[in-house]
Amino acid sequence: MNQQLPALLIIAPFLSALIISIAGWVNKRLCFPIAVVGLSIAAWSSVGLLLRVLDEGLVLYRLGGWDPPMGIAYYVDHLNGLVLTVVSVVALLNLIASKKTIEQDFPEKIGPFYTLYVLMVTGLLGIVVTGDAFNLYVLLEIAALTGYGLLAMGEDRAPLATLNYLYMGTIGACFYLLGVGYLYVVTGSLNMVDIARILPALYQSKAVLAAFMICMIGVWLKMAFFPLHAWLPNAYTYAPSAASSLIAPLVTKVMIYVMIRLILTVFTPKYVFSTLTVSEPIVWLAVIAIVMGAIFALSERNLKKMLTYVIIAEVGYMVGGAWLGNRAGMTGAILHIANDALMTLCVFLVVGNIVYKVKGYAFEDLKGLFRKMPFTMGAFVIGALSIIGVPPTCGFFSKWYLISGAIQAGHYGFMVALLFSSLVNVVLFFRVIEIAYYEPFAEHHGHNSLPEQMAEAPLMMLVPLLIVAAGLVLVGMYTSDIVNHIIQFAIPKGLV
Amino acid sequence: MPDLISIIVAKYNYWMYIILMMIGLYAMIAKNNLVKKVVGMNIFQTAIILLYVSIGAKKGATIPILEHVHSEQAHAAGSHMIQSVEYINPLPHVLMLTAIVVAVATLGVALALLIRVYNRHQTLEEDEILAQIREK
């Protein structure tokens, strides 16, 4: 059984997605338990895989028993062991937390929603676990197509926003496919390890350079790296809260994992940081991404949309950190994948709870919420502190690594951008907290008749949120263990 | 000048795919109608599919089916019997079967979204939809 974990990781959610779509016709109440079982098996196998990787190093799984360069192989090392665990745990927690909002938002579409949800998680896990460049493209499209379906279930403007995402996302995936095509032309292989073995002789080739840059642009489009970010805010804002709290924490983070995988495994740091001389301008692009994300976030009067711009700034953190070209920066970027997934999940679950109770997420809807929903807002404060980067929470530590990476690389612009973004985050989140704490509850929409009483979200939504909030502090306290036992081995020794 | 022409002619499949891709990209950027953007997207995807198909082709090669040869014999006989030059490379073509399926699925999702946008706004011209949104 233990030998089959990498396959189980994908098969379990995939089959449960199929079963859910059938069960949805029979009885809608069956969908949720099946989804929980499928994602629990996935979470269990990814944790098992991570433990096995910690024990014995790289795990290689040959699908169908075919040997790597010909067959498709799944490679699990420290890097994707960590990301797999994060993805499956975040998806499971959000699944449980969002049960009530799904029942409230679209009671007649429960079956299709869970099918798409679980299928999307299958795609994301597949992207992370696969060791085949073309297989990655297919899984990327599985995750993207299901994501379009989930996002479009939202408010009035959701279909149009999703359509824009679809245009951009398709271009992004096609660019990635084109880059893989170039790699196939020069190397004749699609297996990532095999490509990395063949490439060093071709490092001077213009086709390899083209392949690398085209893949990068495709991945940047998918992760909403600043000049290519235009699709993200609307698509995530108008989505149903259950979908946005799945997609916002995971999709951009998984795409950053793909970028780091391309840099570290396929093209190797030697090529990316020594042979090419593009890292300096890309870090500057990341600086612009961080600053612009922060400024756009400041101009929003709407909590959910503000958070989407915070995501764009965070993408800038991770791209910049990865491209600094030193160990500290890369450590910070990988650590931030895990931390940012949890932080974003935390704040988006808070938005979900607020929408569930108050039916709105504009700043005016937040008035008096600390009295009404103290636990939810308490979790929001922890999430906000983590995004700002206050010490006991995990956000501080990844930012610390990123800043020390920036100092090592002598890239002070990136350091200043990180500090600027932290300061802006202080303003952003304390503005929200101030409105929610000091302003009296407004009688609007007529949804609530007893303003001063506590009307907390149901326990089923609250408990996962509090677990995530506690997780932010716990991950922060165990940062040194994560870095010393996992991330340290995820980065090749050549990178100092 | 003759050099340039011979370069273009020698690699005409690449030029064709780039031209098609740019047509698709232009439609997606410049067209105002959402359906035309979807068509542009499809041309864009097809261009990449054509690139893959063209890199598998070889001059004078045939389809990769070995006649009257059992697999054990083929292995035993070694490389002198099967020359890879004589057969086109099937792998890119197989990959593109998957990519075509993906393109069709994307088209389906896009059309479904277009129907919802049309039901909501009664138009598919992007500027009119944006004007409607701004009015509110």
Structure commentary:
The complex is a heterodimer of chains A (496) and B (136). Chain A is mostly helical. Chain A has helices at residues 5-26, 31-56, 78-97, 99-105, 110-129, 133-152, 158-187, 192-198, 206-223, 232-237, 241-266, 268-275, 279-298, 303-323, 327-358, 369-372, 374-388, 394-409, 412-438, 459-477, 479-490; strands at residues 59-62, 73-76. Chain A has a domain at 277-496. In chain A, strands 1-2 form a two-stranded antiparallel ribbon. Chain B is mostly helical and 136 residues long. Chain B has one domain: Helix Hairpins, CATH 1.10.287.3510. Chain B has helices at residues 2-10, 12-30, 34-56, 71-77, 90-121, 126-135. In chain B, helix 3 runs antiparallel to helix 5. The radius of gyration of chain B is 23 Å and the shape is elongated. The mean pLDDT of chain B is 84. The chains are: A mainly alpha (496), B mainly alpha (136). The A-B interface holds A 134, 137-138, 141, 145, 148-149, 152, 156-157, 159-160, 162-163, 166-167, 170-171, 174, 177-178, 181, 184-185, 190 and B 25, 28, 34, 37, 41, 44-45, 48, 51-52, 55, 92, 95, 98-99, 102, 105-106, 109-110, 113-114, 116-117, 120-121, 129, 133.
